[in-house]
Write a structure and sequence with these properties.
657 residues, mainly alpha, 5 strands, 64% helix
Length: 657
C-alpha cells in the first residue's frame, strides 16, 4: 500500500497532472491520425505504430517527470551530488533520443509486419478449413446502407474465387441463408456452420461518421468465437462505399495470397452494384422488377457482367429462349474479359440452351467441385443429374456429400428438393426399402409435386381407392391443373394393372370435381381426351381434340393429338401427313418435344425402329424426365417390351462411376 508521504510527493511533483496531460494529448493525436491517414493514402500501420510507441514510452515519461523533482542539496557528499546531477540531466539528451528512436522503429517494424500478415496461422486456415464471408452489420442507422453487407460478401468472395484454392463458400449460398432468415450473429454456430459447412467466417460491421463510412472486419472461428485476425478499420466517402470495400478486399486477399500475384478486376460502379444486389434480394418474388433492375444495372455499368448472368437465369426460367441466346452471345463476344468462374457459367448456359446436358453438366460440376458441401450447389447438381441426365446413381453419389440427417427439412426449401430427388433416385434404381423410408419422410413436410405422383402410384396399388381420393383432394388444394395431373397418373396406373373398373372410377371422380374447379371446362376435356385415347375409344377423343384445337389454333399439343387420333381411327395417311407438317414447325428450343411426339406417331404406325430412333433423338436433344414418362405413355405401349426401348429408359447422359 502506498504511503501518504509518497502520494504527497507525487502530488507535489504534479505527476497526476502530467499523466492526465500525456493521456489526453496522445489520445487526440491518435484520433487525428486515424481520421486523416485514409485521406492521405497512408498505411494504417502508422497509427498502430504510434499506439505501440505511446504505450512503450509511458514508463520513460514517468521516470523523466520524477527525475525533475530531485533536488541537489548542499549537505550531500560530492559523489552523491555528482550522481544526482547526472540523473538530473534527464539521462543525457542523446541517449534518451536514441532510445526513443529505437523504440519507435521497433514498434513501426512490428506493426508493418502485422500489416504484411507474417503470421504462422495462415497455412492451416488455407489448407484445412472452409471460409465464408458473411453480411457485415449495418450500424449506420440508415436502411439505405443495408446494401453494403451483401456487397462485401459478394465482392470478397469473388476475389477468392478469382485468385486461388481457398475453400470459399459462394456468395449466393450466403445470400440464401440470410434470405431464409437463418443468418445473424446469434445463430452463427447453428446455422452458418451447418448449412454452409464452414468453420471460419469473415465478419464485421460499418458505421457512419459525418460524411464518411467506416468499416471494420475480423476473421472469426465460428466454433470458438475467437478472432483469428483483425483486418483493421477502413474508411471512405459515404457516396462511394465501393472504394472502401476495394481497400478491404485488397487487405483480405493479401492475407491469403502473395500481394504481387493477386488478380485484380475493376470494381463495379456503386449505383450499378446496388441495382444488382436489390435484384438478387427480390429473386422469385417479383420477376418483372428483377428484370428491370438487372437491365438498369447493365446500362449503368456495361463492364459489370454478373447482372447479365442473373438475367440469363431469369429468362431461362421464363422460357425466353431467344432472349437468353442474345445474352449468351453478348457474353461470348467478350469472353476474354471474363474470369474463369464466369466462363464456366457462360459455357453451362450455352450448352444447356442447346439441350446438350452432358456438356452443360461438366461446367456446372466445376462450381460444385470448389465446395461439394455447399448445400445449394450440391442440391442443384443432384437435380441436374437426376432429372436432366437420367442418372439417379450420380444423384445419390452427390447427395452423400451432405448427410440427410444434418439438414433442416422444416425450414429449408432446398432440403425438401434434396429429399425428393433422393426418394426418386431410389425409386428409379429399385431400392424399395430406402424409397419407402424416404417417402415417409416426405410426408412429414409439404411434398414436391412429383413426390405426390409417387405417393399416388403407391395408393393405386390398394384395393380401396378412398385413401387415393382423399390424398389427391388434400394435396392439390383445389388447384385444377395439379388435380388433373395426379388423376392422370392414377388412371394410367390402373390401366397398366389391367383394372379398367378402377380407371373408370377415377375418371368419374376426377371429371365431376374438375367440372367444379375449372369454369372453362378445358381441363375436364383434356382429361377425357387422354382417357379415351388410353382406353382406345378414339371416336370419343377426336371431337374433343378438334374443339380444343379450334380454341388454340396451331397448338402443337392438340395438332399431334389429332394426328395420333387419325392414325388410331384408321386414317393413317392423313394422320402421318399432319404429323410431318407439325414437325416442320419445330422451334429452335424444342428440347426434344417434337421428336418425342413423332416417336408416338411412328409407334402407333407400327414403325418400331423409326419410333425408337425418334425417342433416342428426343433424349439427345433434351427431352426431360424421359425415364419417368416413356414407360407410362400408352401411345408407346407397342414399344414397352422391346429390348432397345428398355435400354433407352436407362440411357444416361454421363457415364456411371
Amino acid at each position: 500500500m502506498l504511503s501518504k508521504e509518497f502520494l504527497s510527493k507525487l502530488k507535489s511533483a504534479k505527476i497526476f497532472e502530467a499523466v492526465s496531460i500525456y493521456g489526453a494529448s496522445t489520445w487526440i493525436t491518435i484520433q487525428v491520425l486515424a481520421t486523416v491517414t485514409p485521406y492521405l493514402n497512408l498505411p494504417t500501420y502508422i497509427v498502430t505504430g504510434v499506439i505501440y510507441c505511446v504505450i512503450a514510452l509511458f514508463p520513460f515519461f514517468l521516470l523523466e517527470r520524477f527525475i525533475d523533482t530531485l533536488e541537489i542539496k548542499e549537505g550531500d557528499s560530492a559523489k552523491h551530488r555528482f550522481y544526482n546531477r547526472i540523473i538530473a540531466l534527464d539521462l543525457a539528451v542523446w541517449p534518451k533520443y536514441v532510445l526513443i528512436g529505437s523504440i519507435l522503429a521497433i514498434c513501426l517494424i512490428f506493426a508493418a509486419n502485422k500489416e504484411r500478415n507474417l503470421t504462422p496461422t495462415v497455412p492451416d486456415i488455407i489448407l484445412q478449413d472452409k471460409l465464408a464471408v458473411l453480411y457485415f452489420e449495418n450500424q449506420t442507422g440508415y436502411e439505405e446502407y443495408d446494401v453494403i453487407g451483401p456487397m462485401v460478401s459478394h465482392w470478397l468472395t469473388e476475389g477468392f474465387i478469382q485468385n486461388g484454392d481457398v475453400k470459399i463458400v459462394s456468395a449466393n449460398s450466403v445470400q440464401r441463408v440470410y434470405q431464409a432468415g437463418l443468418g445473424g450473429v446469434s445463430s452463427l454456430t447453428e446455422n452458418i456452420s451447418k448449412l454452409l459447412g464452414t468453420k471460419n467466417v469473415i465478419d464485421g460491421s460499418y458505421f457512419l461518421q459525418k460524411d464518411s463510412i467506416f468499416l471494420k472486419a475480423n476473421l472469426i472461428n465460428v466454433e470458438t468465437g475467437d478472432v483469428l485476425y483483425a483486418f483493421g478499420n477502413f474508411s471512405g466517402p459515404k457516396e462511394e462505399p465501393i472504394t472502401i470495400i476495394e481497400d478491404l478486399r485488397e487487405k483480405v486477399l493479401g492475407y491469403w495470397f502473395n500481394k504481387e500475384n493477386i488478380k485484380r478486376y475493376p470494381a463495379p460502379r456503386y449505383d450499378a452494384y446496388k441495382k444488382y444486389i436489390e435484384a438478387q434480394s427480390l429473386w422469385s418474388e417479383d420477376n418483372a422488377r428483377v428484370k428491370s433492375l438487372l437491365e438498369e444495372s447493365i446500362t449503368l455499368d456495361p463492364n459489370f457482367y454478373e447482372p447479365l448472368f442473373l438475367l440469363i437465369a431469369l429468362q431461362r426460367n421464363k422460357r425466353k429462349w431467344s432472349y437468353c441466346d442474345s445474352l449468351t452471345n453478348r457474353l461470348y463476344n467478350i469472353k476474354s474479359e471474363l474470369t474463369n468462374a464466369q466462363l464456366d457459367k457462360l459455357n453451362f448456359f450455352r450448352y444447356e440452351l442447346k439441350g446438350d446436358y452432358k456438356s452443360a453438366y461438366t461446367y456446372l460440376k466445376k462450381e460444385f467441385d470448389r465446395d461439394p458441401e455447399d448445400l445449394f450447389m450440391n442440391t442443384s447438381l443432384m437435380v441436374f443429374a437426376n432429372l436432366k441426365l437420367n442418372d439417379p446413381a450420380e444423384c445419390l453419389a452427390i447427395a452423400k456429400e451432405i448427410s440427410i440427417d444434418s439438414i433442416n427439412l422444416e425450414d429449408c426449401k432446398y432440403c425438401k428438393t434434396r429429399l425428393f430427388n433422393q426418394t426418386l433416385a431410389h425409386h428409379l434404381l429399385g431400392n424399395d426399402a430406402e424409397f419407402n423410408r424416404l417417402l415417409t419422410l416426405n410426408s412429414s413436410v409439404e411434398p414436391d409435386s412429383r413426390i405426390k405422383q409417387l405417393q399416388t402410384i403407391q395408393l393405386v396399388k390398394k384395393e380401396n381407392l378412398d385413401d387415393l381420393h382423399n390424398y389427391i383432394n388434400q394435396t392439390t388444394s383445389n388447384d385444377p391443373r395439379k388435380y388433373l395431373d395426379l388423376y392422370l397418373v392414377a388412371i394410367v396406373d390402373c390401366l397398366k394393372q389391367g383394372n379398367e373398373a378402377k380407371a373408370k372410377q377415377c375418371l368419374e371422380v376426377a371429371s365431376k370435381r374438375l367440372g367444379q374447379l375449372d369454369s372453362n371446362n378445358n381441363l375436364s376435356q383434356e382429361l377425357l381426351g387422354q382417357y379415351y385415347d388410353i382406353s382406345r375409344e378414339y371416336d370419343k377423343s377426336y371431337p374433343i381434340y378438334m374443339s380444343q384445337e379450334a380454341k388454340y389454333p396451331k397448338d402443337q399439343f392438340y395438332l399431334f393429338r389429332i394426328a395420333c387420333n387419325k392414325i388410331l381411327s384408321g386414317n393413317t395417311k392423313e394422320g402421318l401427313a399432319l404429323a410431318k407438317e407439325v414437325e416442320m414447325t419445330k422451334s429452335d428450343h424444342d428440347f426434344g418435344y417434337t421428336e418425342y411426339e413423332m416417336a408416338r406417331v411412328h409407334a402407333l404406325l407400327g414403325n418400331t425402329e423409326k419410333a425408337l430412333d425418334y425417342l433416342d433423338q428426343s433424349i439427345q436433344n433434351g427431352r426431360l424426365f424421359h425415364h419417368l414418362h416413356f414407360g407410362r405413355d400408352f401411345y408407346l405401349r407397342s414399344l414397352w417390351n422391346h429390348p432397345r426401348f428398355n435400354t433407352l429408359l436407362k440411357t444416361r447422359a454421363i457415364s456411371p462411376k
